[in-house]
Amino acid sequence: TKYCLPKFYKKATALRKSFETRFDYSSAKTASPFVWDYWHVQDKYTLLRTPAYLFFPKKIYEDFHNQLVWWGRRTLGCHDVSPTWLSCYIEGCEQKIHADLPHGPWAFVYSLTDWETRKFLGGETFILNERVLNYWANYDKNNPLESTEAFEKVQPKFNQLLVFDPRLPHGVNKVKGVNDIKHGRLVIHGWFVNPRPFIEGPISTKELAQEILSLDQFIFENSNLVAGITGTVSFQISVTAAGKIKLVKLLASTLRSIYGEPASPMIAEIEQHIARHFSFKKQMHSSLITLPLMFE
After folding, report:
1. Among 81, 106, 137, 68, residue whose Cα is nearest residue 231
2. Which of these, 37, 16, 12, lies nearest to 182 by C-alpha position?
3. Rounded distance, CA 212 to CA 197, Å?
4. How buried is 64 (Cβ within 10 angstroms: 0-12 exposed, 13-18 middle, 19+ buried)?
5. Is the dihedral of CA 239, 243, 294, 138 positive or negative?
6. pLDDT of residue 31
7. Residue 65 pLDDT
8. Which of 100-109, 146-155, 186-195 has the highest mean pLDDT?
9. Count of CB atoms within 10 A of residue 232's CB?
10. Which among 235, 225, 118, 98 is positioned nearest to 168, based on CA atoms?
């Protein structure tokens, strides 16, 4: 599962303008270019990076950060993001294929790249197709695997948020043809972290904890459903003011079976258990719960 959200942040141009101002060498008052860490690890990474939360003016960055965090809470059940990096890719910069462990259950890349007017080649995020990870099970002699099918490429278009499973091997294609920082591949990136239940409404965490214990017991008693399953799944649970379950909705999942079996039967069983067995005290208002579950 991956998310590719265009037009994610309504004030993206302010972030981009702040970046360009720091590298406006025509003005000694605004130019402040001495911020980069040249991060080079032989045969792994080459790029310029700096902490994003220190680079941008506090007010501009905090507004973006808050939107990112709230999206993660409501969609993934992750309460926060890791300290974010602002990275710039110019001539020769790249990330070779790798996997991110154990930073967080979801990785994100938010682009401030002026992609439509770029003057360079490369810069796409590439993610290994899962067909390759289970190659022989999906082998078809009449359908040979080409390089374009082995990797999915995602262009870092301006104001786009890409969210994906960081366990999947991925990287960034080498950038060629640009030496000016202002015209490189520019992204804010990191990981969604601290998965735990998130409640919007009057239901208490203590009351929800009791229902989660019953779910844990159900999973324990039906361990055959989760045998070989690894990853993260999140559900949205709508609860009426009367304490009844109105709707259980799958939000996001990185669940995979080491045996190659689909995880959908397990997801369906958990959804049904929540819908049938979760109940809460009567309240003045309805509640909305984001419930993440991790399997290792």
Report:
1. 106
2. 16
3. 10
4. buried
5. negative
6. 54
7. 98
8. 186-195
9. 24
10. 98
What single letter denotes the amino acid at residue 1? T
Q: Which two tokens stand for residue 146?
A: 């080409």
Read off the amino acid at residue 148: T
Could you say which DSSP state residue 114 is in?
-
Q: What whole-number distance in Å separates Cα of residue 40 and Cα of residue 44?
A: 8
Closest CA to 11 of 221, 166, 114, 158: 158
Between 264-277 and 205-221, two packed helices, what is the crossing angle to 10 degrees?
Answer: 130
Contact (Cβ atoms closer than 8 angstroms) between residue 96 and residue 45: yes
Helices (H) and strands (E) in the chain, counts: 8, 17
- The H or E element containing residue 73 is helix 58-75
Task: Give percent above pLDDT 90 in the chain.
Answer: 78
* Amino acid at site 235: F
β partners of residue 232: 294
Here the tokens at position 277 are: 């067995």
Q: Give the pLDDT confidence of 22-73 residue by residue, as tens digits.
A: 887 765 565 566 789 999 999 999 999 999 999 999 999 999 999 999 999 9
